[in-house]
Amino acid sequence: MIRPVSARERRLIALLILTALIAAGYFLIVAPVVAGFQSRAERFDRLALTYTHNLRTIATIPRLRREAELRRAASVSFVAAAGNAEAGREWLKDRLQRAVDSAGGAFREGSDAEASPGWARARASARMTLPQLAAALAHLQNQPPWLIVETVSITAGNVIVPGQAPSMDMEIEASIPLRPAAAR
């Protein structure tokens, strides 16, 4: 048999039911609303940081553009403009010949050399004296676009004349990076 519930037990059951309703209300209504406010606040903070970052990035565009233009202008001194690798090799052979001729040497021939993609590489054979070789190398390396003199081979014969600088066979190999020439 079920015994009757006392007033104290009824108050405890009512308090327990009230606590359960308050907990259910908190977990079903209040907690999701608070969590929504917190997630929106975090998202707002992230958006504010992204907005600030984007403003700073946009503000640096003119400076970055000036730097890019300066670097592009400086690259002209380091890169040869040619339509293709063959044109770059011909330009390089012509430059080697001009350097040898301006130094007073006898240019014999220019030939192609194997190069990496994006590079032109050429070889020049000439007959000249040691001072002429120094002048030719100075001419090659001190005028833009600067190129890389990779090898210099000297073959000295038995032609030594007293009082004169000996004339020797030279082979100069040089390379330079290429940039496609602008269409005109």
Automatic annotation (TrEMBL):
The keyword Membrane is annotated on this UniProt entry: yes
Source organism (scientific name): Sphingomonas psychrotolerans
Pfam families assigned to the protein according to its UniProt record, in alphabetical order: T2SSM_b
The protein, known as: General secretion pathway protein GspM
Keywords noted in UniProt: Membrane, Transmembrane, Transmembrane helix
TM regions (residue ranges): 12-37
Superkingdom to which the source organism belongs: Bacteria
